[in-house]
């Protein structure tokens, strides 16, 4: 049964009530809907907890997609945190908002970075304080200060960040939208989510983002590393 992933339509929802739709053999809990982002595409799973009507809390160790099309999510209790819940129970799902928001700012900043450096992306990671993208670049010589200045310019523009959906067929007809070589957008459900930063970037992405670039705040490039003959890793940090 597909999980209603509330974070895909509104990354600012911090909590919701949800019904237990399944309990897996490993003890992880599937809800009919959730605010929890499941680990995917270089962005870690949200932190937080599930709370029963009794007031008892289930701390979570992880949140994962359990199907290839990324439509069903399992909430994995931390060791010793499992409670006797059954299918049909109502739980409150609540994320650690400070961690989520920092990752939203970072993830959006990485989209800007990919617009500044228009090369194929070979890997990446979203963190709360530091994040990175790996690029397939044949020549070195990336200037940290120049990239930082361009990021600052894009952030100051306060461009709107919006999402919309296109069909699998539309994405297949526009392969240039896909920047990542290592992570492909989930397909198979008939639609793919696009993230657009007005006038700056457009690409498929299932992650969480801020509503405008101004919300990112100050960011700087901390390091450019040579990770191979054609691979450059660019690290950024919130200031």
Describe this structure in words.
A hairpin with a 5-residue loop joins strand 2 and strand 3. This protein folds into two domains: 92 residues, Elongation Factor Tu (Ef-tu), domain 3 (Beta Barrel); 140 residues, Threonyl-trna Synthetase, Chain A, domain 2 (Threonyl-tRNA Synthetase, Chain A, domain 2). The strands form four sheets. The chain has a six-stranded antiparallel barrel with strand order 2-3-7-6-5-8. A four-stranded antiparallel β-sheet has the order 9-10-15-14, covered by helices on one side. The chain is an alpha+beta fold and 239 residues long. It is 16% helix and 37% strand. The N and C termini lie far apart (42 Å).
Write a concise synopsis of the structure shown.
Helices cover 16% and strands 37% of the residues. It is an alpha+beta fold and 239 residues long.
């Amino acid at each position: 049964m597909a999980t209603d992933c509330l974070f895909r339509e509104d990354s600012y929802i911090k909590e919701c009530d949800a019904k237990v739709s399944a309990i897996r053999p490993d003890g992880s809990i599937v809800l009919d809907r959730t605010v929890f982002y499941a680990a995917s595409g270089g962005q870690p799973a949200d932190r937080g907890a599930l709370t029963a009507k009794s007031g008892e809390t289930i701390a979570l160790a992880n949140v994962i997609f359990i199907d290839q099309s990324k439509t069903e999510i399992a909430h994995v209790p931390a060791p010793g945190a499992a409670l006797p819940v059954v299918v049909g129970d109502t739980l409150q799902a609540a994320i650690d908002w400070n961690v989520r928001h920092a990752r939203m700012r970072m993830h959006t900043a990485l989209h800007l970075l990919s617009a500044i450096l228009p090369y194929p992306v070979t890997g990446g990671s979203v963190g709360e304080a530091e994040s990175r993208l790996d690029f397939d670049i044949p020549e070195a010589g990336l200037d940290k200060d120049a990239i930082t200045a361009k990021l600052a310019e894009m952030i100051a523009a306060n461009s709107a960040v919006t999402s919309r959906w296109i069909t699998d067929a539309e994405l297949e007809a526009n392969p240039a939208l896909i920047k990542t070589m290592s992570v492909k957008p989930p397909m198979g459900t008939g639609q793919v989510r696009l993230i657009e930063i007005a006038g700056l970037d457009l690409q498929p992405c299932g992650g969480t983002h801020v509503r405008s670039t101004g919300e990112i705040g100050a960011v700087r490039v901390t390091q450019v590393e040579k990770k191979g003959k054609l691979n450059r890793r660019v690290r950024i940090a919130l200031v």
